[in-house]
Amino acid sequence: MPRLPALLLFAFLAAPVAAKEAVPAAADPVLEKRVIALSEELRCLVCQNQTLAESNAPLAEDLRNQVREKMRAGKSEREVVEFLVERYGDFVLYRPPLKATTILLWFGPFLLLALGFAVLLRRVRRRRQGTDAEINDADRKRAAELLAGSEPR
Amino acid sequence: MTMTRFAIPIAVFVALLALLGVGLKLDPREVPSPLIGKPAPHFELPQLHETSKTFTERDMRGKVWVLNVWASWCVSCREEHPVLLDLAASGAVPVYGLNYKDRREDGLKWLKGMGDPYKLSIFDFDGRVGIDYGVYGVPETYVIDKAGVIRYKRIGPLTPQIVKEKVLPLVRDLERA
Amino acid sequence: MIPELGQLALALALSLALAQGLLGLVGAARGDNVWMAATRPAARGQFVFVAIAFACLTSSFVANDFSVAYVVSNSNSALPLQYRIAGVWGGHEGSMLLWVLMLSVWTLGVTLFSRHLPQEMVARVLGVMGLVSVGFLLFILFTSNPFLRLFPAAPDGRDLNPLLQDPGMVMHPPMLYMGYVGFSIAFAFAVAALLSGRLDAAWARWSRPWTTAAWCFLTVGIALGSGWAYYELGWGGWWFWDPVENASFMPWLIGTGLIHSLAVTEKRGAFRSWTVLLAILAFALSLLGTFLVRSGVLTSVHAFATDPTRGIFILALLALVIGGSLLLYVWRAPKIGLGGGFEPLSRESFLLANNVIFAAAAGSVLLGTLYPLALDASGLGKISVGPPYFETVFVPLMAPALFLMGVGPLARWKQASLPDLVSRLRWALAAAVLAALALPFAMGRWGALVAMGLLLAAWVAASGFMQLYEKVRNAAGGVSAWTRLRSVPRATYGMLLAHFGVAVFVVGVTMVKGYESEKDVRMEPGDTVELGGYTFRFDGVRDVTGPNYVAGRARIAVSRSGSPVTTLYPEKRIYRVQNMPMTEAAIDTGFTRDLYVSLGDAVSDSAWVVRVHHKPFIDWIWGGCLLMALGGALAASDRRYRLAARRPQEQYAASPAR
User: Fold this and answer.
1) What pLDDT sits at residue C308?
2) What's the pTM?
3) Label partner for B79 (CA 20 to 30 A): which of A125, B169, C3, C621?
């Protein structure tokens, strides 16, 4: 009997301690970080252009679960990606793999830039040489026409 | 290069127009299967009707067969069901079903009401086998040859035209091999 | 009655647009003053009737007229008034009508502010715009009529997509379309120039304010779209390189190249054929964007309900308008001539290099967007190209442009001296390096990418200050600094502000990408979570009812070192009509950071999943865009344009370039 008041007191004191630091939503936050990081580079196959990470579609959830399981079992990012590509093809990757068919894609932008600068340099150099002579000739002719009284049309 | 450079923009533009024109006929959401020409992934699943028995793709070695992925909650599956019933009735090729992410009772009820074209159906509760087969939408249909290699995949409901033009000729060729 | 009136108004607008097109172009070709003079009233008439049609559609929405099919698919009687109005452009048909309205508004603007331009040029510009209007009005009347009736009328509508029920929706499409459509003016000027053979500094001065204005609107439109995605979609992202986003970004990139190119053509008469080409390309990309969004050729969250028939029509329109103008370019551009000469090291060449970079950037975005289609069409497989690609490619491409932004404005026209530039910019460089080395530590840790971003941003800002400082310092003695500052032309301030906006933007992007953090936690009432120095306390969820939704609203108390900062109320809504769940994030906006909280699912009776984000400097992204747009507006309203506008029609003495 004398224990009861002590118990009650203890229960009363313990109550406010219920509020605490929130626990991570995922069971294993470190693993989850890896899962999300990879899922953000993968495509949800049934959505209108969304990543696997943000989609709520059932298939997306299934695939995220597969990614999580495989990573938990120790597979690397590359192995998980291989697993998905085997089944769904390159379509599932938002970062297109570098292959013969995607060389133009990956190097195109830099080729464009290089080509643009090459053309630019050549034209600027030629312009420096060519402009003066051109102006003289054309101008001379127009000047002659104007002086002769006929309006150039 | 001096004067022809002015023609480069229009040349590029025409190529672009051609690409976009072709693009109008394509479906950007279709995911072609990388499994065509590869061995059908292994599975061993319980059957839908007789839960104590299992079925694996190895049971079908030496035979040409069709695997159809269906579910009771799938609306388009209703569209293709008569086509499957016809195909099964014709005896041209055995049709097996993969009940994808469904509830057993729902699946059984559906077959009872719609008719059962399948020699048997296997029950893929969590969709794992579906993922192995690259399933992303239901219905999908596979034609698998005697060596257990996937030869054709139809994404979406089967139509009589597709059965006539793609499935049956392929089955005939595979049977002869 | 009203929908039929709207349809009639569109048909009348079509005939007026046709008149505008023919009177303008044929009149100018024949030199017929009567015809050319008639172009303006025709253009104004077109505006009136398009406005009437738009008003009719709006009134059908406001009055909940569910006998109109388009109203049924985009509205609902429980929809609040502002979203009933925004619903007018919520679907494909109505947004096309908005497009045409914007086109007629710009056309009206040209008729009002072109008194000082030669009649022949105005007639041609209006003529081209008239033909573009004809194309779009035909498209609406034949494939995308928003006034079609539904028999029998529906009892109620299917509601506007909940994602669109939001203030961003009210402003984003109109701003964006003002931009897209505004480039049609630059396009019209370019075609007019090609047709007349007259392409020189005066032409550049006339088309420049219009182009800059369109660019401003597009900047604001894109920024609004990005900001809207950020607070509406609930996952904290603000740019996804989605095909539709790219479709708006490409004209912006080319448009930026164009306004810089016009500067050179105006000041030095150089780059003429290149400027004309850019003007054509900017509008071409606007049209391409229209095609991509509505044809179903690419998958996107933003795409309207797609229809290949509409796709074919737009493709044909694209072929006619752009193909036609590019053919004209092949024929006429060689006669344009080169213009003033310049050295390899000069402001001209820096600006030209800038153009090359922006064109390459636009080309890369186009490449990435269309590559999957190209591979699929050639049977070479199916791939996806997403943010990882674009980010890898785009950032290195833009870095040189940021460098040039510091050097270009200080370089002399025609011939610049490298030692001179180096000596003038050495302090700016020092400031930039210092910022790159030191600032990251203020945020907690140093990173190479962050340092790079800060280096470039500080470089742009510091060199901008140098430019201003030089203007004040170099003026003749005896004049106060304030007078000197006031004598700097508005256009220069515009440039400085816009470039500064770019620096602010780069800081925002760099800091957010370098230092953002998030935590995904399970919270019971009373639980707290710490992030970025802030404490978030979850106080439970209560049920609330909105006009057309029910929601669970959480209360999150935010504090820092014990003192309260704010209270946030993220929601999880279900919109009744479409039964669609939506996350409504709660954001505490700050100058140096955003606190972003979104509610996940309930995992038990009292516990919910809550995601908190700390996003440093993220508002500098949109702040930077706003500064860019303001800079552009300043530049477009420069004295010389307003003075020219007040002068009677310019005596155009120079002969056309042949």
Assistant:
1) 81
2) 0.91
3) B169
Residue positions counted in chain C: 658
Averaged over C257-284, what is the pLDDT? 91
Contact indicator for C67, C149 with CB cutoff of 8 Å: yes
Q: State residue C197's pLDDT score.
A: 85
What pLDDT does residue C475 have? 64
The band of A128, judged by pLDDT with boundaries at 50, 70 and 90, is: low
In terms of Cα–Cα distance, which of A3, A81, A4, A9 is closest to A40?
A: A81
Q: Give yes or no for a contact between C155 and C76, defined as CB atoms under 8 angstroms apart.
A: no
Q: Could you please report the per-residue DSSP string of C213-237? A: HHHHHHHHHHHHHHHHHHHHSSS--
Q: In Å, how far is C389's CA from the nearest CA of chain A?
A: 5
Q: Which of A45, A88, A112 to mutate to test the interface with B (most CBs of B within 10 A)?
A: A88
Whether the per-residue pLDDT at A135 is higher than 60: the answer is no
Contact call for C341 and A108, based on CB within 8 A: no
Comparing CA positions, the residue from C641, C621, C656 lying closest to residue C226 is C621
Dihedral sign for Cα B35, B39, B45, B49, please.
Answer: positive
Report the length, in residues, of chain B.
177
Per-residue pLDDT at C577 exceeds 90: no
CA distance C7 to C50: 10
Of residues A101, A120, A142, nearest to C375 (C-beta) = A101
Residue C644 has pLDDT above 50, yes or no: yes
DSSP A71-134: HHTT--HHHHHHHHHHHH-GGGBSS----GGGHHHHHHHHHHHHHHHHHHHHHHHHHHHHHHHH
Q: How far apart are CA C600 and CA C1, in angstroms?
A: 47
A-facing residues of B in 32-91 (CB < 8 A) are 32-35
CB of C470 within 8 A of CB of C607?
no
Q: What are the residue ranges of helices labelled H in C87-238?
A: 92-112, 119-143, 167-196, 201-232
C146 upstream amide cis, omega within 30 of 0: no
3-class secondary-structure state, position B45: strand
Measured between CA atoms, the residue of chain B closest to residue C285 is B13
Assess C279–B contact: CB distance below 8 Å, yes or no. Answer: no
Q: For chain A, report the end-to-end CA distance as a whole number of angstroms.
A: 119
Q: Cα–Cα–Cα angle for C637, C642, C647, nearest 5°?
A: 165
Mutate to test the interface with B, among A64, A67, A87, A123 (most CBs of B within 10 A): A87
> Residue A131 burial by CB count (10 A; 0-12/13-18/19+): exposed, middle or buried?
middle
- What is the identity of the amino acid at C392? T
Q: What tens digit of pLDDT does each residue of A69-78 get?
A: 999 999 999 9
3-state secondary structure of A8: helix
Q: Which two tokens stand for residue A74?
A: 């120790």
Eight-class DSSP state of C160: -
Query: What type of residue is A39?
Result: S
Tell me if C349 sits within 8 A of C261, measured CB to CB. Answer: no
The predicted structure's pLDDT at residue A136: 59
| Interface pTM, i.e. ipTM | 0.91
State how beta strands C608-616 and C593-602 pair: antiparallel
| B20 part of contact set with chain C, CB < 8 Å | yes
> Taking CB atoms and an 8 Å cutoff, what residues of chain A touch B133?
87
Q: Do C367 and A113 touch (CB under 8 A)?
A: no
pLDDT (tens, 9 = 90+) of chain B, 177 residues, equals 457 788 899 999 999 999 999 999 998 889 999 999 999 999 999 999 988 999 999 999 999 999 999 999 999 999 999 999 999 999 999 999 999 999 999 999 999 999 999 999 999 999 999 999 999 989 999 999 999 999 999 999 999 999 999 999 999 999 997
CA-based end-to-end distance of chain C: 55
Q: Tokens for C357?
A: 């970079």
Q: Is A88–B127 a contact, with Cβ atoms under 8 angstroms apart?
A: no
